[in-house]
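2 proteins. here.
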Amino acid sequence: MTFRPINDDHAVERCEFAIGLNAPLSPRETNLIHSRAALWCEELPAITVSELDVPTDPVAQFIIGPNNVGLLFSYLRPDGSAVWSMQCGFNEILITATRYTRWATTWSVAQTLIAKVLSVLQNPQNPRQVISVALRVRDEFYAAAGHQASSALVQSKFVSGLVLAQDSTWHNNLGWFEPISDSPVLNHLNISTRNDTFGDEARRSLQISHLQQIRLEDADRPPLIADQSAAAAAVDAIELMMTELHIRNKRVMTELLTPELASRIGLRGNP
């Protein structure tokens, strides 16, 4: 069989939405977010408080501070894995969805959570500001064991024919910058194949992880979050940026995949 997406109509295994603030959360702010958990308890009823390790692969532009207490709010499956989660730690608000339907539906949930957290953080005396907006999407496909990725990917500026012709598993890592307005956007594109099993079936998996991280220049940053109206304006600005990152991710995936596979997951139709 040729490569097919992990879902019937899309290949998204997980989607991560992140914002980076201009300074790490203080203990007071961490406690404040914890105390207001009722605002999102319907979406994320489980709460974990723990000391965070510094991530090796952060999503948003990262700032480390002395307060390493992190909050993890989540909606869990019976096996304990998270369907949705929101982690608040250091200067990052990170929302992860592992049940993706379509962009509009998934982003709507993430946007609501971001709006609620920013409303909690509003402070006229020491207002926060968003300095980074990031999106990471991981797509996954699978085929029979030993299948070459050339049946799923086309030779392009993102991946060479030498890699595609490999019978063995491989990894391709690429990074570049491109602007949005005056702000640089870091892109990390990681593509890899691996051998695994599903039940008694040996198969080959293809994973594509695309991180886009906007490092906002002063002129492009949302307003200082001093009050509710400023928090709402920041959310509106974040929505525009996330939508642009989504469009750019679709363009990259369209260039990577064969036309048949791109059509199958909706890249040549609805988002």
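next one coming up
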Amino acid sequence: MQYHNRRENNAPQGPMTELTLVETGAAASRTKGKAAGNAAGGSVTSRRAPSGISDGFRADPFVTVREPRRPPRIRLNSSYGLGAFVGLITYLSYGYLNHAWSNWALVAISIFMFVSLPLYSKYSNRIEYLAARWTQLETGGRVARYLFQFLDNMFLLWIYVAGEVIDPTALDAIGGFFATAAWITIISQGGQYLANSLARKGFGNPDRNVVWAIAISVTISALAVSGVSWIQPVYVVISLGFGALIFGIGLMADAKRLLEKRKGPVFRPWI
């Protein structure tokens, strides 16, 4: 394509002129090729031609380039990947320890954990935030989060018992049905809290740390709930330690904030 200057007869005289586009030679053939490309499908974009290009495009600042269509990309949500991993660990742990590979309740719980874990985490964080804001206490948020997860774990434990995945008499060694649900909740929350604390200090990635924390807590809980005698007392001690850590740090933070609010900054000679 070449540009030729032509002044219209009726156009006003002055320094401005109109550029008239004239197709010649190879430019016309490339225009036909562009039309055929549009008919065949695909995206057509205009790009600036490099300097020194020949074959009829010396004066054309743009060149039409046909690009092939790209297949759509499938984006995977990391939350559902975490849910799938936890569901798989749950199935393998309880299935191996209780020989319940074909148990409908175990399969249903594993699928439920895969589907609901992203919403479970979202609602847990939301409940903790709203409770802490309403009570103006960090401990209030943690207690609300614990109660929500306690009810969820109690429901899942009931399905384990009703579906004959585990022997209910195995729960007597760790305090019975309600105490076991409480230990499971504390172990899970303590592991996640420890994983996030390590990530904030530069040890590992937060998502990966949480994945391993949940996997470890599910495996240890499966051992204790399935009646492995040597792990049950250790399980209770770990639960009590995590409970003291989670709520103890929350109580200390609330006490510090209340003292600073009433009496001003607290004197800390050890800093």
